């Protein structure tokens, strides 16, 4: 609702693109503190004897991000992850093509991988591996509903935690503990302090 009447505001953005996978971020900010003063800023709307300037404030932001592109064995279709719905989901589209993509995941997804014969796509959804059967037809590919096939350990970062073997079995990596980097600031001063206190002697 804007102004004194009910209504709707729709923002439409059209941009050209290529076959490169990339992402964008957008932000629209309107704030009366950035506006020049005008005659209406001095109007007393509340009747308290003080000026009541219009509070024209609006903040819209979002992102489009695509990652993890994987081509099927014949190179005609690409599975990838897109954040266009506000969360990561797995999509498939013809490649290279501007055709509408098909969303595979129903509850979020990441790290899609094709089977060696192109008849299956496996992706991660939380701590589960989900499988989607792929059928090729004259009109293109059709996809089954995703079904869970395995439970996998949660793993941070962008390295794949599984691979599909030629016979359809899964090769999974399991992380033992957490790897991290410790950044110590002013370490020469800290070293002198420890030496003075006798630590390590």
Features:
201 residues, mainly beta, five-stranded antiparallel sheet, four-stranded antiparallel sheet, 13 strands, 35% strand
Q: How would you sum up this structure, described in words?
A:
The chain has 201 residues and is mainly β. The chain is built from one helix and 13 strands. The strands form four sheets. Strands 7, 8, 9, 10 and 11 form a five-stranded antiparallel β-sheet that branches. Strands 3-4-5-6 form a four-stranded antiparallel β-sheet, with no helix packed on it. The radius of gyration is 27 Å and the shape is flat. 14% of the residues are buried.
Radius of gyration: 27 Å
Structural class: mainly beta
- Give unreliable regions as ranges: none
What characteristic shape results from the CA principal axes? flat
Overall strand count: 13
**Count of helix runs:** 1
Mean pLDDT: 77
Distance between the termini: 71 Å
The amount of beta strand, in percent, is 25-35%
Percentage of residues in helical conformation? under 10%
N-to-C SSE string, H for helix and E for strand: EEEEEEEEEEEEEH
Give a quick rundown of the structure:
With 201 residues, the protein is mainly β. The chain contains 1 helix and 13 strands; from the N terminus they run E-E-E-E-E-E-E-E-E-E-E-E-E-H. Strand 4 (77-82) and strand 5 form a beta hairpin.
Any chance you could write out the topology, listing elements then pairs?
Elements: E1 24-30, E2 58-64, E3 66-71, E4 77-82, E5 89-94, E6 102-103, E7 110-114, E8 120-125, E9 128-137, E10 140-143, E11 147-151, E12 162-164, E13 170-172, H1 187-197
Antiparallel strand pairs: 1-2, 3-4, 4-5, 5-6, 7-8, 8-9, 9-10, 9-11, 12-13
